[in-house]
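explain this.
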Amino acid sequence: MNLNLGTAAFFTALVEFVLAAGMLALWAKERSRYLIFWSFGFFVFGIGSWLLILRGRIPDFFSILVGNLFTTLSSVLFYIGICLFFDRRRSWLPWMVGALSLEMALLAYYSYVTYDTAARVYVYGAAQSLIALMTLQTLFTMGRGRGGNINLEVIAVAVLALVAHGARLVGTPFYPVPQDFLASGNFQTLLAFGLKLTHIGYALAFGNMHASALHADLRVALADIKAKARQKVEVLGYIGHDLRAPLATISGYSSLLLNNAHEKQRKHLLTIQRSVKYQLNLIDELLEYAKAELQPLTVQPVTIDLLLLLDDISEYAVALCSQQNNRFRYHPCGRMPRQISLDGKRLQQVLLNLLSNAAKFTHDGVVTLSVTAEPEERACVLSFAVSDTGMGVDMSRNVDIFGAFQQMQAASGSTGLGLFIAQRIVSAMGGSLSVASISGQGATFSFVLSVPSDVSDADWSVVAQREIEPSEPSPKPTMPRNLMPGDRALDELASLALHGRFTDIEHWIERHAGEAANAPFIAVLLDLLERLDFHGVRALALRGRSDSSA
């Protein structure tokens, strides 16, 4: 196949149709107006190239006038699409229409009045060069537009188009064209292939511009989603905060009513107070979640006594585990540093959260807190693991248990925020909370923290492991019935002890400690509570009820 002007026009037409189809496919997905103009620009250039191939088989009106008009019109359509993309006025459009009209008039003159192929080449090249200059001027004056800075690629391609058409104007006198334009030599053929490559460059630049627009729209959409999500969390925080006031009022008035209520009324009022406290606990969780979402989670490392902190956490864990008759094991492995720099409050919050979950979902089993420490240059790597022998987590459900409002068990009676908050805290401390579990065989939650440590090897201590069995029920104390509170109060105490509600029992004691007749009973109760003997507390309450029934 000879590489003549006809061959160049043929391949140019095929390429232009492919590029037009590609832009049209993008338009079908996005419906962006600038894409349809760019698509038509490639299409009409392809039509103009195809009409040039048919020179001699169709009237000159189509092969010369319409063909040249379409190829020049493609540049105008590109300009319109660029203006639409950057959302700018098409100030040069009237001038371009004028250039097209003048081109048509001159082409008609040099085709029908005086047949001059070289003159038509000059007219076509001049019109294309003027439109390329107008497009470049528009691009240079836009500054910033949609999707950020102007795409430099489209400027480079427009410059290449201007160079190609300018080269035709400058080079044609040195490489004269025959009356049959298709018989032009290598110079015009090379320019035709150059324009084809220029249009491929236009397509790539337009594609990148469209991609940048999509990315900009995506960034705006993400920012909008984040803003709306923040608004929702703010509303959640406001609602949670405002709900506390009426609930506190209800609790206060119910406490006042308790002073003069008879036994039946006291039962209902105590139920109200328990419900209010339960709701307040849920609201506190919601507020903690809202606070964590709205404010960056701050971690304030200070020098703490790690061994003392872990001992305190273990004491809390004993109380938590006793609620479901679980054994608690504290397994510090090997030697550990006493003084270390980390946020002890946050660490305690995480571990108590994990231990509370383990104790909640385990019955008559074992909950274990394992801690290891490894020196690493001027740091210490601490590994924490909380494991249990409870119900476990069904990992096959593909549920993100660390997500907000995700519950491991639908009937757990919580908001599902505990693990979410724990994960955020661990992440803020530089670690990652992970879980390993088999449904029905327990679960292990673990994380690793690397914290600064300047202590010498001599400051590391060996910590003994220990295991605490659930408290055995205490012997039923012998106490006259007249030295014990009423049956309703004892029913409430037995229920609180059954669920291991340490703080609520303390409040119960505060309410009844003012009655002198109850002093011996309160003294025994305080002794049992100090030992975290919830079974003994319940047995004491039930003993009083049985004596009353007798």
About this structure: Residues 105 and 409 are 82 Å apart (CA to CA).
